[in-house]
Write a structure and sequence with these properties.
heterodimer; A: 417 residues; mainly alpha; ABC transporter involved in vitamin B12 uptake, BtuC; 2 domains; two-stranded antiparallel ribbon; 16 helices; disordered N terminus; B: 264 residues; alpha/beta; four-stranded antiparallel beta sheet; 10 helices; disordered C terminus; binds adenosine-5'-triphosphate; binds magnesium ion
Chain lengths: 417, 264
C-alpha cells in the first residue's frame, strides 16, 4: 500500500486483458480505496480458521446450518439499513422496529387467532408505518435521522413492553412461521434451488454480455465472465452438497439434512432488492441522493420522497427480520430485537462494505457482513461463556469495520477516486 | 446554420426585466438578446445581478415584470422543468455532479432511459459515448469511470455534456473556468466554442476578460442591475469591457452619465 514508490501510474487495463487484466484492475481499485467486500470475506475466512482451530464443536455440520439461521435476522435488518446508510442517514430504531412488528404479528396470530398471512401483513404494515413516520420527520421536518431514530429506539422499546407486558412473552405456534427460520428443504429441492440460482446468474451475466456486444460497447473478457459464473456455481454446489448431508446427532430418531429454508428466502430478497438498487431509476436516485443531494435535487429528483421511501423499505425489512427472530425463538418477548441486535445489524452492513458516509453500498454487503457477525456470535460461546467478552469483541469488530470504511474513504479522496 | 439569419433573430430575447428581493431592486429594466451559434458573455461585477438574471431565465426565480420570448414566442417560465422543456440547460458553478456515480449515470441523472421499469444501460452508454465524441472529448478513458476520479476540467466537460445531451438550444454556463488551471481552462473554452459552432446559443458568465475576448461573439455588461451595454465583442477592447463593468459606461457606450440624466 505504499504510494511513495513512484512507479508510473497504472495503465488503463484493456478489458480484453483476460483474467490477469481483470485481477490487475481489481488490485488497482483496492489500492484506490475501493475495497468492496474483500475485508469481510478475508475476515470471514480468518474467523472460520480461528474458531475451527480453537473450538471443536464449531466445525460440526449441525453448527454450520445453525449459523445460517442465526445470521438471518441480522442480514434482513442489515439489508434494510443498507437503504438508509446509502442516503448517509442512520436508523437506530431498526432493532426495536423488528421487535415491535414481530409483537404485532404475535398479537394478531396467537392472541386474536388470525391466520399467519394476516399476521405477517400486520407485521409488515407496522414496519411500514414506523418507517413512514421516521421518513417524514427526517425528510419533511429536517430533523437529523440520528435524533429521530434515537427517540424511536426508546419509544418502540416502550411500545414493545406495553404490547407484551412486563415479563411476558407471546408464543409463536404457527407451523409456517416456525418453519421459515428452523426447517430445511428436502435434498432434491436444494439441488433444484442450486440449479435455479447458478443457471439464473449465468443467464443474466451472459445476456448482459450479449446485449453490450450487440450495442458495440466494451465488454468484460469472456474468460473473466466464465471464471465468475463457474466460481459461483462451484461454491454454491459445495455448500448445497455439504448442507444436504445428514447432520442430526441421532438420525434414526430425527433426520436433519437439507439447505435451510431461510437460504432461498434470503436469496429471493437479495436478488429482488439488488434489482431495485441497480436496475431501476429509483435505485439510481437513492445512490445520487447519498452521493450529492443538491445535485440530485437539481436533476429533478424529489429528494424527500426518496428518503421517505428508503426509511419505509428499511423498516419493512427490519419487520421481516422481526419475523425471523420470532420464528427462531418460538416467541416474542420485550427483549426481541433489543440488546445488541441493532449494533450487530449495523456492523453487518458496514463490515460487508456499505459506507457510513452514504452513496456506497450493496445488498450483498449485508449478507456477507451478516455471515461474519454470525460466525463471531456462533463461535465465541464455544470459547467463552462471558457475555462481557462477546460485547467487547463485537464492538471492536464494528469499530474496525468503520475504520476500514473511513480509511478507504480517505484513500479514495487522496487518489482522486 | 447560416449565420446571417441567426444573427438577426435572437433565440432568447428579454425586454425590461425587473426583479426585486423584498426591498432590494436587483434587476432594473434589463434587456438581453442571445443568438443561436453565438457565445454571449455576461459580465459584471460581484453583485451586479448576473446569477439572478440566469436563474430567472432557467426558471429558478420568476421575474417580476418584463417580457421573456424564446424562438420568437412570448413564454412564461416559472420552474426549471419548463426551461428544460424549451431546451434551456444550465451548468452551475458548483457543477452538481454525484461523485459516487459514473459518467453515464451522471449524464442521465433524473432522466434515465428505461425500458419498462428497467434502466436501459446500453442505450444510455451508447448515447453518452456519442455525445462526448460529438463534443470532441477524448480525454476520458472510459464513460464508466466514477466522476470522483476525474480532473476538474473533465468534470466540467461532463457537466457541459449533461447540458447538451437533451437537444438543448440554449446552454448557460456560470463561471465554468473559475476553478481551472491553464490547460483545463483552454479545454473548456474550446468546448464552449464548439457548442456555439454546432449551432447552440451559449451564455457564458465569466470574470476573466481574456476568456471573454477569446470565445465570446457578444458581450453583455451588467452594472448594478442595469444592462450597461450589449455589443459585439470585436468592437470592444479589454479596457472598454473593464470600464463597462466598473463604471457602467465607456466613451459613448453604456449608461448615460448620472448628471446628464438629471438634466434631461
Ligand atoms: N435570494 C436573494 N435574496 C435577496 N437578495 C439577493 C438574493 N439573491 C441575490 N440577491 C442580491 O442581488 C444582487 C445580485 O446578486 P447576484 O448573485 O445576481 O450577483 P452576481 O452578478 O451573480 O455576482 P457574482 O459575480 O458575485 O456571482 C446582490 O446584491 C445580492 O445580494
Ligand atoms: Mg453569481
Amino acid at each position: 500500500m505504499t504510494t511513495s514508490t513512484a512507479t508510473p501510474a497504472p495503465e488503463v487495463i484493456e478489458e480484453g486483458g483476460g483474467i490477469g487484466g481483470a485481477l490487475r484492475d481489481y488490485v488497482a481499485r483496492l489500492r484506490g480505496g475501493d475495497t468492496g467486500s474483500l475485508p469481510a470475506v478475508l475476515g470471514f475466512i480468518v474467523l472460520v480458521i480461528f474458531f475451527s482451530a480453537t473450538a471443536e464443536p464449531f466445525t460440526s455440520k449441525l453448527n454450520w446450518a445453525n449459523l445460517l439461521n442465526q445470521s438471518a435476522a441480522y442480514i434482513f435488518i442489515a439489508m434494510g439499513l443498507v437503504f438508509v446508510l446509502l442516503l448517509g442517514e442512520i436508523d437506530l430504531s431498526a432493532g426495536y422496529t423488528a421487535g415491535t412488528s414481530a409483537a404485532m404479528m404475535g398479537v394478531v396470530m396467537t392472541q386474536k387467532g388470525f391466520a399467519w398471512p394476516i399476521a405477517v401483513l400486520a407485521c409488515l404494515v407496522t414496519g411500514a408505518v414506523i418507517g413512514l413516520t421516521i421518513g417524514i420527520l427526517v425528510a419533511r421536518l429536517g430533523i437529523p435521522s440520528f435524533v429521530v431514530t434515537l427517540a424511536y429506539f426508546l419509544g418502540l422499546q416502550g411500545v414493545l413492553l406495553l404490547v407484551i407486558g412486563e415479563g411476558g412473552t407471546i408464543a409463536i405456534r404457527d407451523k409456517t412461521i416456525l418453519a421459515i427460520n428452523n426447517n430445511n428443504m428436502s435434498t432434491w429441492m436444494g439441488w433444484v434451488f442450486f440449479l435455479v440460482v447458478a443457471g439464473g446468474y449465468a443467464a443474466v451475466t451472459f445476456g448482459q454480455q450479449a446485449r453490450r456486444r450487440a450495442a458495440g460497447l466494451p465488454t468484460a473478457a469472456t474468460s473473466v465472465v466464465l471464471a465468475k459464473v463457474g466460481g459461483l456455481a462451484l461454491l454454491l454446489a459445495i455448500v448445497t452438497f455439504f448442507l444436504n448431508q445428514e447432520r442430526s446427532v441421532n438420525p434414526v430418531l430425527n433426520s436433519l439434512k437439507g439447505v435451510p429454508i431461510i437460504v432461498p428466502v434470503t436469496a429471493l430478497f437479495v436478488v429482488g432488492l439488488t434489482f431495485v438498487l441497480t436496475r431501476t431509476s429509483f435505485g439510481r436516485h437513492v445512490y445520487a441522493v447519498g452521493g450529492n443531494a443538491e445535485a440530485a435535487r437539481r436533476a429533478g429528483i424529489n429528494v424527500g420522497n426518496i428518503k421517505i421511501a428508503c426509511f419505509v423499505i428499511g423498516s419493512v425489512l427490519a419487520a421481516i427480520g422481526g419475523i425471523l427472530i420470532a420464528s427462531r425463538d418460538n416467541s416474542v418477548s420485550p427483549t426481541s430485537g433489543g440488546s445488541s441486535t441493532l449494533l450487530l445489524s449495523v456492523a453487518a452492513a458496514v463490515i460487508g462494505g456499505t459506507s457510513l458516509f452514504g452513496g456506497k453500498g450493496r445488498i450483498i454487503d449485508a449478507v456477507i457482513g451478516g455471515l461474519v457477525i454470525g460466525v463471531i456470535y456462533n463461535g465465541l460461546p464455544f470459547i467463552t461463556q462471558q457475555a462481557g467478552i462477546q460485547f467487547v469483541v463485537t464492538a471492536g469488530v464494528l469499530l474496525l469495520a468503520a475504520s476500514v470504511d473511513a480509511i478507504a474513504r480517505r484513500r479514495a479522496s487522496a487518489t482522486g477516486r | 446554420m447560416s449565420t446571417s439569419t441567426s444573427s438577426t433573430t435572437p433565440l432568447l430575447s428579454l425586454r425590461g426585466i425587473n426583479k426585486s428581493f423584498g426591498a432590494v431592486h436587483v434587476l432594473k429594466g434589463v434587456d438581453l438578446d442571445v443568438w443561436p451559434g453565438k457565445v454571449t458573455a455576461l459580465v459584471g461585477d460581484n453583485g451586479a445581478g448576473k446569477s439572478t438574471l440566469i436563474k430567472g431565465i432557467a426558471g429558478i426565480y420568476s421575474f417580476d415584470s418584463g417580457s421573456y420570448s424564446f424562438e420568437g414566442q412570448q413564454v412564461e417560465v416559472t420552474n426549471p422543468k419548463q426551461a428544460n422543456a424549451l431546451g434551456i440547460e444550465v451548468v452551475y458553478q458548483d457543477l452538481a455532479l454525484c461523485d459516487n456515480l459514473d459518467v453515464v449515470q451522471n449524464l442521465y441523472l433524473g432522466r434515465e432511459a428505461t425500458s419498462g421499469v428497467i434502466l436501459d444501460e446500453t442505450t444510455m452508454e451508447r448515447k453518452a459515448t456519442e455525445t462526448l465524441k460529438g463534443l470532441s472529448v477524448r480525454t476520458l478513458k472510459s464513460v464508466r469511470m466514477k466522476v470522483s476520479s476525474l480532473s476538474g476540467g473533465q468534470r466540467q466537460t461532463v457537466a457541459i455534456a449533461r447540458a447538451v445531451l437533451w437537444n438543448s438550444k440554449l446552454v448557460i454556463l456560470d463561471e465554468p473556468t473559475a476553478a481551472l488551471g491553464v490547460a483545463q481552462t483552454e479545454q473548456v473554452l474550446q468546448l464552449v466554442r464548439r457548442l456555439a459552432d454546432a449551432g447552440l446559443a451559449v451564455i457564458l458568465i465569466s470574470h476573466n476578460m481574456n476568456d471573454v475576448i477569446r470565445v465570446a461573439d457578444n458581450v453583455a455588461a451588467l452594472y448594478l442591475g442595469q444592462m450597461a451595454a450589449q455589443v459585439p465583442s470585436e468592437s470592444l477592447s479589454h479596457g472598454q469591457i473593464v470600464e463597462l463593468i466598473t463604471a457602467g459606461r465607456s466613451g459613448d457606450l453604456g449608461l448615460k452619465a448620472p448628471d446628464k440624466e438629471v438634466v434631461a
